[in-house]
Structures are given as structure tokens and as C-alpha cells.
Please model this.
Amino acid sequence: MKNLMHYIHSTFNYMIDCDAAKFADNARLSLLTKPVYNVYVNPVTIPGYEDNYEHYCKLTQKALNEWSAVINNKIKFKVQNSMMGADIKVYWRKAKRCHAALQYREVVMWSTATGEPIKSVLAVNIGIMGLDDEPYSDEEIYHLILHEFGHILTLGHSPNREDVMCAGGDWNPHLTENDKFVLRLIYSYENCSTFQECLPDIEKKVEKFKNNDKEKDKKSVNHKTKIKYIPHDLLNNLEYIEDIVKYKMALQGVKLDDATTKHFTKPMYLASEIED
Model:
């Protein structure tokens, strides 16, 4: 429970421009508010990987659909190959594993009068190969996309290694129950809600979530396959007993004719399996 609360607190402290190093109790959620975000996927410029563009577009859309499904498509992402109307841009690059992906704000328009930035979009850099030219697997790239767009959805870092939102964790390509729970939790609150305001409700929901997990584990342990033996009247099953005797003779090397061998292939079931 402690790790899950840490994950949630980190999410309240998370901002697109910086992942807060210190947690503040008065931190406010900075949730996405538009129903649809257009994602421009840049062409791949790394030599030898240019033809993988369509493949990476599909990987990106699949990962974004997975996040959207968690909150019943309250927020959707649409991958496009045009910068027109883009809210988010994705780039592909070489990178060390420790810096394989990152996201930041990119200025796309400057004021000609003042020279100040007047428009920016979110940008995501995804590593597709290491500096040693060793390519990342599709599962690793998929994890990186999930992780960075988790940040864009406002999720902070989790201390659980198996969670997608763990920094430097197991590079899991599948959203965990923790990841799903925290995303649903924060999008059940209003934008700019503070951690302290939501804390009593958070604690109740976390307790319920953990209890549900315990119940699932308990059912999993207690689930067994039982053999139900069907009683038989031996007097009515003399034929079966005779078959067993003849079969033992066959095992002992006693030669049987074709008719007898065929007779032994009849399906005779004395027990059946049932599930709890």
C-alpha cells in the first residue's frame, strides 16, 4: 500500500515540464482536458530504419489506445503523419538505455515582434536503438511509448519495478493493475484537485483496491480441480472388468486377434473431471 500511495503522490506532483523531486501536499493535478489529441509521428531518420515508419506508427497508436481504454476513451489520441493541428510530436532516435525516452515542450511558433515563444507542443523522443547500434525490440519500444505517454496523461513515477511507470524498472510492455488503477483514480477527480483535498477518498479507494487484490489471490489459491468418481455397480460392469483382464493379457505379450484389439479401443470412462 505504501508503494501505491507513493505512486499516487508522485502523480499529483507531476507536471509535464518537470517531475517534481520533492513531494508537496498542496500539489495540483494537471490533467489532459481535450477529448482528442492529435499525435504527429515524425519520419524515422536513422539510416536503415526509414522503412519501419509505418510499423512504429502502428505501435504508437496501439499503445495510446491501450491507455485510452483504461479510462473508457475519456481521452483519445489520434496518430497522424502531418504536423497540421498536432498537439504532440513523436521523434525516433539513438539513445542509451538510461535515457531511452523523454518528453518535453517544443516551441513551434515565435513572436516576430518580441521574439518570445507563443505556441508550443508536447514532444516525445523514443529510442529505437542504442548508441552501440544494437536495436531495441518491439516490446522495449512499446514500453517506452507507454511510459512517456503515461507522463503526458500526468502519471508520475512508480516505485514498483513491474509497473510501466517505474523509472528504470523491468521495461514491462504491459500495463499493470497499479498503472490502470492510478490512471482511473486521477481522472475521477477534477483538474487542479490537490493531494490533500483528495487524500481521504484516495485512502478509501486504495484500501478497496488492495482488498480486491487479496480476494483474487485467495480465490486463485483455493481453485482446484477435483475428481468426481461416479459409482458403478460391479455386477452391471462385468464387461468392463473383463476388458481390463484382457488388456493385462495384452500387456503381458499374449497375442490378441484384430477383433479383440478393436474391442479394447472403445471409450470407457469411469471418472470425469469437474471444476469448482
